[in-house]
Amino acid sequence: MAAAADKSKPYFPLASSANDGWSKEDEATATCFCGAVQLAFPTQGPGLVNTFVCNCSDCHKITASMFASNFTVDDKYLKHLRGQDNLKTFGQSRTIASGKMMTNYFCSTCGTLMYRVGAAFPGKSILRIGTVDDFTLHETKLKPQIEQFVKDRVGWLSGVEGARKSEAMGL
């Protein structure tokens, strides 16, 4: 059996075609699966707004999973390091809880959902924790603090330990 990763220091497993992700005390990278798109984001406030798991039906569908693990960033602190022109968008408002437009930004090469921008949250982008290159951050600075739409959580998941629970949008 393989030894467990040392989560006390940055950990960059082979998890995509790119191998140039990095993390510093206050900033890190998120990269799509093929490596064409890479973002830099803050790992603390004021640029890092919150971290959350969403169980809403939209997140079920858009992730092809039972929930989405997310973090919200103030757009003033979000940097497109490469591939911004490689992003394609899809937006709609019909199934969004706020009733307002939610636009999804995907890598046009590999299909990775890099972030969402909602009209209900001006000046903010919602990134996916799974795109973050330093896996240590998944369990430290980006560990979800909120779990929203718990009413839609599947029965075979118990939820995020220690996270504040919300029946609807808990941002």
TrEMBL record:
Domain CENP-V/GFA: 28-146
Record InterPro entries: CENP-V/GFA, Mss4-like_sf
SUPFAM superfamilies: Mss4-like
Database matches in Pfam families: GFA
Coiled coil: none
Domain of life of the source: Eukaryota
Keywords: Lyase, Metal-binding, Zinc
Molecular functions per Gene Ontology: carbon-sulfur lyase activity; metal ion binding
Family: Belongs to the Gfa family.
Protein name: CENP-V/GFA domain-containing protein
Organism: Vermiconidia calcicola
Lineage of the species this protein comes from: Eukaryota, Fungi, Dikarya, Ascomycota, Pezizomycotina
